[in-house]
Specification:
The structure holds three protein chains of three kinds. By secondary structure, chain A is mainly alpha-helical. In chain A, a hairpin with a 4-residue loop joins strand 1 and strand 2. In chain B, strand 9 and strand 10 form a beta hairpin. By secondary structure, chain C is mainly alpha-helical. Chain C contains twelve helices and two strands; from the N terminus they run H-H-H-H-H-E-E-H-H-H-H-H-H-H. Chain C has a two-stranded antiparallel ribbon with strand order 1-2. Chain C is globular, with a radius of gyration of 19 Å. Classes of the chains: A mainly alpha, B alpha/beta, C mainly alpha.
């Protein structure tokens, strides 16, 4: 019984982080329709900024800010990176009429460029932003219920923070004008423009929103677990995975997909050992892509023609 | 005995019945027109016959063999060739390659032969190129043999597609709206070619077309479809038939509305 | 002199990788980012079959093949891996690329996690070099005598394939898979054969590579390297088999050139390289998708 709860807690925590990333990815994908692998970079930007402003040093300079200030800076920078991505990368590709492939490879190249930059400057060692080292583990034991659970407050905080953000995002899309504008452009760009919505602004907005969400994930992750440059692509694929599993085109689906990946990874870690967590997630992604490409909630498109162009 | 016998084809998409018990034949040396309003199921039928879609029920007998449900490349091997709406030429390949590629049974297409029997492959390739070139000449586009296909005008691309079809040695030609997007000056030439395919080359041609004048000019037999077969017969017979007009105006069957 | 011989060895091995990836991407239209993964599968297979280390992974102890058969098996196992993941070939455009990246990440992760067979992060050491009449290859120049003929052979095979009617089938599939089907080409099966063949070649390149550096480590076969092989293909020009070789040359020149830039300490070289090639790929996508002498533009 308690193993079940333990797994549930771990899965929920991991899944929440993935859900956050997937949500950001989905927000962007729904409008821009590109597999924005550069999403990983927003995560990295926020994470490394938080680390650097708190504990790190570059060329002898060490800011040593308070952790909350650093986190805020990190998140803002992530949002800013979103603006940069849209203005200097995706908008340019759109102007040139680049197809999906060219944009995707360009995005991938940009991600690796950022990773390379971070490797050069910060090396690949794991960096953790929390001053004073990792949080102590909380141990709840209860003879009567047969409980023997281990977790840190970070785990719990991640869960409710993400839940809060998901609610906030849902409210944003439902009740604010900006949210409605984004939904309009996402479902029918031509019509949205025809009724006077500025699509360029919406694209920017979407990138700010999505990248900020990724940035929050980066800060949270760097605070406790740590960060290293090469996770960029892994996280980008995981985010894409959450979106695909939950159903392309659906925001709640992205959240569910992220949670599903967290669960798959946690179960794999439990049964086969921590090393097998990530492959398990990817295998799940591949299976879904092969057999149910529209995921659980995704918009069902009729695909009957035997040969796909 | 008709070379191609389509019998009792039914097809639904989602809840919509698009083809309702449709049957028709195609005979060598004859052009069969397939007409009907938009959404009547004509292209769907072509897709089913050429293997791109699976019918819910019914049979397609090609020289007596049922090919229903077979994938497109297998349908091709039994002797069915098709064109697509919008000239689908192969970009970044030249005119000649665009045509030679449809040559059936090229042994050089297997790795084993390409690597281990180069002389045989080269000889066969030479023969097939001569054959393909002849088709290009027949359609007056031999000058485009070395040009990249995307550099051709739309009309020339249509001709290239047709040459590819002629080169296929198929007995049945399925033409999907060949006149779409064609300049009126070129229509007559193209129509002559379709007629020649049947009369001179002995092909069984099924012509899906919206340009009714062309169909009435060139077809030996016309089938009017609107979800189901509404009426069929010689052009002169059905031209004045009320059912033909009704089919286009929408007063007929429940299917495919 | 040793230095240039070393570069030449890498040139020969990377040429196999780039030319085979070109056959997949440039000729058949299969944009695969899992090439480094297949190389890794081949490398590890070779290492497992031939290692003479004092500390091999437990799973490897039952194997002991001579050099050249092991190299062949390395290629075959890589091809088998490709066949295992071949269902992804059904996927359309962007899903396919995403799937190949996923496959790449998964393959590396499996190499890392299956410790019993691969030693995990400890890597497999003491992978043997080829030997001629009893003399084991010692210097890069001597290794060249082996790697260059293998490379030339494999590249000629690719050249022969792509210049034959088979090659025309590939470009037809790339140009328009529906039309290809409609003129009798079994598109799915051809794609499978191409995918497996190019994986086979990547596997052999992997075996050669780990024999040269005498170590098989998962860090040699990461997704970034898959992207770099793509850079070699794209820069050289996809769709022209000769272009890939130019691309490899460019890659090696730039890669080594980085070392000589003043002001960059050795520890930073890897990161700077990544930045350079990622940057090049980005610029190529933005301004010249057809590469140097490419036959067509990536769309």
């Amino acid at each position: 019984m308690d193993t079940f709860i333990q797994i549930a807690i771990n899965a929920l925590a991991l899944g929440s982080l993935y859900a956050l990333l997937s949500l950001g990815f989905a927000v962007i994908y729904n409008t821009v329709r590109i597999f924005h692998v550069l999403h990983g970079a927003a995560f990295l930007v926020a994470g490394y900024s938080t680390y650097w402003f708190t504990k790190g040093e570059i060329f002898g300079y060490s800011p040593g800010f308070n952790i909350w200030v650093s986190a805020a800076i990190g998140i803002v920078l992530a949002g800013v990176s979103g603006i940069v991505m849209e203005l200097f990368i995706y908008r340019q590709f759109r102007k040139k009429g680049a197809g999906f492939l060219v944009s995707f490879l360009g995005s991938l190249a940009a991600l690796f460029f950022v990773e390379g930059m971070l490797i050069t400057v910060a090396k690949t060692t794991h960096r953790m932003a929390r001053p004073g080292g990792p949080l102590p583990t909380v141990n709840i034991q209860n003879e009567a219920l047969g409980l023997d659970l281990y977790f840190t407050w970070h785990t719990i905080n991640t869960i409710w923070l993400v839940a809060l953000l998901v609610v906030a995002v849902t409210l944003f899309f439902k009740y604010t004008q900006w949210g409605r504008m984004i939904r309009a452009v996402a479902s029918n760009p031509d019509l949205a423009v025809a009724v006077g919505i500025n699509a360029s602004h919406v694209y920017l907005l979407v990138f700010i929103l999505g990248s900020t969400l990724a940035g929050i994930g980066g800060v949270v992750q760097t605070y406790e677990t740590g960060i290293t440059p090469i996770v960029g692509i892994h996280l980008a694929i995981t985010a894409a995975g959450g979106v695909i599993i939950g159903g392309i085109g659906s925001l709640p689906g992205a959240v569910v997909g992220g949670l599903a990946l967290g669960l798959a990874q946690t179960l794999a870690a439990y049964f086969f050992g921590g090393n097998w967590a990530e492959p398990a997630g990817f295998v799940l992604l591949l299976l879904v892509v092969l057999f149910r490409p529209y995921g659980l909630h995704g918009t069902r498109e009729h695909r009957e023609l035997r040969r796909l162009l | 005995m008709a070379v191609l016998e389509i019998s009792n084809i039914n097809k639904s998409f989602g809840g919509n019945l698009v083809l309702d018990n449709v049957s028709m034949k195609a005979e060598l040396g004859k052009v069969t027109g397939l007409i009907g309003p938009n959404g009547a199921g004509k292209s769907t039928l072509l897709n089913i016959v050429s293997g791109f879609l699976k019918a819910d029920s019914g049979s397609i007998l090609m020289n007596g063999v049922n090919i229903a449900g077979k994938p497109p490349y297998k349908a091709y091997k039994t002797g069915i060739a098709r064109t697509f709406q919008d000239a689908q030429v192969l970009f970044y390949m030249n005119g000649l390659d665009n045509v030679v590629v449809s040559s059936p049974n090229q042994r050089g297409e297997a790795e084993y032969n390409a690597l281990l029997r180069p002389r045989m492959v080269a000889k066969e390739e030479k023969e097939r190129r001569i054959e393909a070139m002849a088709h290009l000449k027949e359609l007056n586009i031999e000058s485009k043999a070395e040009s990249l296909s995307q550099a051709l005008s739309y009309g020339q691309q249509k001709l290239l597609e047709f040459a590819r079809m002629l080169n296929s040695r198929a007995e049945v030609f399925l033409l999907d709206e060949p006149m779409a997007g064609i300049h009126p000056d070129l229509i007559e030439g193209l129509t002559k070619m379709i007629r020649a395919a049947a009369t001179d080359h002995g092909k069984a041609v099924i012509l899906v077309e919206h340009n009714l004048k062309v169909v009435m000019d060139v077809a030996d037999h016309v089938v009017v479809v609107r979800g189901e077969v509404v009426v069929e017969g010689k052009p002169s017979e059905i031209e004045k038939d009320e059912r033909l007009t009704n089919a286009f105006l929408g007063f007929v069957s429940n299917a495919a509305t | 002199m040793d230095y240039f011989a070393d570069l030449a060895v890498k040139l020969s091995i990377f040429a196999i990788l780039a030319t085979s990836l070109n056959m997949s991407v440039g000729y058949t239209g299969l944009m695969s980012l899992s090439h480094a993964g297949f190389m890794g599968v081949g490398a590890y297979t070779f290492a497992i079959l031939t290692t003479q280390s004092t500390n091999p992974p437990p799973g490897a102890e039952m194997f002991n093949l001579p050099y050249w058969p092991a190299l062949l098996v390395a290629g075959i196992i890589a091809a088998v891996a490709a066949i295992i993941v071949s269902p992804i070939l059904r996927l359309r455009g962007h899903f396919f690329v995403l799937a190949t990246v996923t496959v790449q990440l998964t393959m590396v992760q499996v190499l890392l996690s299956w410790k019993w067979m691969t030693n995990g992060s400890l890597a497999i050491r003491d992978v043997p070099r080829p030997s001629f009449l009893g003399h084991v290859v010692g210097s890069p120049q001597e290794f060249l005598l082996f790697s260059v003929p293998v490379a030339i052979f494999l590249i000629l095979v690719i050249r022969q394939l792509v210049q034959s009617p088979y090659g025309r089938v590939l470009t037809t599939i790339r140009a328009n898979p529906s039309v290809a089907e409609s003129i009798g080409k079994n598109v799915g099966f051809v794609r499978l054969r191409v995918f497996a063949t190019t994986a086979f070649m990547a596997g052999i390149a992997g075996g050669l590579f780990c024999s040269y550096v005498t170590v098989a480590a998962h860090t040699q076969f990461l997704v970034e390297f898959s992207t770099f092989i793509l850079v070699m293909v794209v820069l050289g020009g996809s769709g022209r088999w000769m272009g890939s070789i130019l691309g490899v040359l460019g890659y090696i020149l730039i890669s080594e050139g980085v070392r000589f830039i003043p002001g960059i300490p050795p520890t930073m070289v890897g990161g700077v390289r990544t930045m350079l090639f990622a940057g090049l790929l980005f610029l190529a996508m933005m301004y010249r998708p057809q590469g140097l002498i490419g036959r067509y533009k990536l769309e």
